[in-house]
Specification:
By secondary structure, the chain is mainly α. Helix content is 49%, strand content 0%.
Length: 86
């Protein structure tokens, strides 16, 4: 497969490859493999975590907030949120 990159993107890939001590083809293949893995749960997200890591981190974060008070349904009504506006 051959992919043509716009000049600016090609230059950024070359620079990034040099910074990482590899060649542009290897870097591009690695990035594509991260973006399109065989197992979708291993896909690397924007912050560098896999989907599985993101799910685990989110669940841990959520579990750390169990002692917060439960708000009544009225707290989410427009009238309650914008009580000081007409």
């Amino acid at each position: 497969m051959t992919i043509e990159l716009e000049p600016g993107l090609a230059d950024r890939v070359k620079r990034a490859a040099e910074e990482q001590g590899t060649d542009p083809k290897t870097l591009a293949a690695r990035k594509l493999n991260e973006a399109f893995p065989e197992d979708p749960m291993q896909r690397v997200m924007w912050n560098g975590m896999t989907v599985e890591q993101w799910i685990r981190e989110t669940r841990e974060w959520s579990a750390s907030h169990k002692d917060w008070p439960i708000l009544p349904d009225e707290a989410f009504e427009r009238e309650s949120i914008y009580a000081d506006h007409d």
